[in-house]
Amino acid sequence: DGKQSTITRFFSKV
Amino acid sequence: MLEFRLVQGSLLKKVMEAIKDLVTDANFECSSTGFSLQAMDSSHVALVALLLRSEGFEHYRCDRNLSMGMNLNNMSKMLKCAGNDDIITIKADDGGDIVTFMFESPSQDKISDFEMKLMDISSEQLGIPESEYQSIVRMPAAEFQRICKDLSSIGDTVIISVTKEGVKFSTRGDIGSANIVCRQNTSVDKPEEATVIEMKEPVSLTFALRYMNSFTKATPLSNSVSLSMSSDLPLVVEYKIADMGYLRFYLAPKIED
């Protein structure tokens, strides 16, 4: 099913 | 100080029921724009973003920006004590460590106030860029909830594919597989019953159904839901909150090993 990615892979901290 | 009066108090109750199982603690940000929240689940796979604009409140006073850390389970316990028709007022003093929830019955014959301790929560704020999505699907929220529930009895993940034929939800598990295709359907009596597919490019992404099912706890907030998808971005599941704002869930996709 593939590997679960995380939100922080796409959006960076401000 | 801040003081917000929400005539349709049930909205706040519904928001809490939609997010309390996904997020444990969160900072509510209060500013002249409105009441907002951004928080990730403990595994950083999903992110919740809530906005209730100040114009949607009957009375909205926020003298200076204030961040209120709350345990959502405790907040939910307090809001459950409000009747569905009650008017809810939220009050806090600058620099104070408590928030007050006041509930007024519609006939004003019962007024309750509940005080809750605030918490210091260190949370990371993420920048969510404005994006053009490859495909956006809008469909009845109850239909989306039904699809997620049905598919999760068969598999753990869902592949959502948008083509010019429609939107396809597929899963596979030990007992077999399932495909549900929803076609664009705008010939309905009410706009909220429509399924609208805006496709700039076809897109196909894989997501954990456990999270999708959790998001559908927001179904009582809105008749329709929108799914925004691009191959290089998290899915956005958005429930609009009438005249006030939105509750959005961002979900990171499953990717190739």
Descriptive account of the structure:
- The complex is a heterodimer of chains A (14) and B (257).
- Chain A is mainly β and 14 residues long.
- Chain A is 0% helix and 14% strand.
- Chain A has no helices and one strand.
- The mean pLDDT of chain A is 92.
- Chain B is mainly beta and 257 residues long.
- Chain B is built from four helices and 19 strands.
- Chain B has a nine-stranded antiparallel sheet with strand order 6-2-3-4-18-17-16-10-14.
- In chain B, a hairpin with a 3-residue loop joins strand 2 (25-30) and strand 3.
- In chain B, helix 1 (10-19) packs antiparallel against helix 2.
- Chain B is globular, with a radius of gyration of 19 Å.
- At the A-B interface, strand 1 of A face strand 19 of B.
- Strand 1 of chain A pairs antiparallel with strand 19 (254-255) of chain B.
Keyword list:
heterodimer, A: 14 residues, mainly beta, B: 5-stranded antiparallel sheet, 14% helix, 45% strand
Kindly state the number of beta strands of chain A: 1
Cα end-to-end separation of chain B: 50 Å
Radius of gyration of chain B: 19 Å
Overall form of chain B: globular
* Distance between the first and last residues' Cα of chain A: 32 Å
Average pLDDT of chain B, rounded to a whole number, is 96
What share of residues are in beta strands of chain A?
Answer: 5-15%
* Main sheet summary of chain A: none
What is the helix content of chain B? 10-25%
Mean pLDDT of chain A: 92
* Number of DSSP helical runs of chain B: 4
Assembly category: heterodimer
pLDDT below 50 for ≥5 consecutive residues: which ranges of chain B? Answer: none
Which blocks of ≥5 consecutive residues of chain A have pLDDT under 50? none
Largest sheet of chain B: 9 strands, antiparallel
Write down the overall geometry of chain A: rod-shaped
Instruction: Tally the beta strands of chain B.
Output: 19
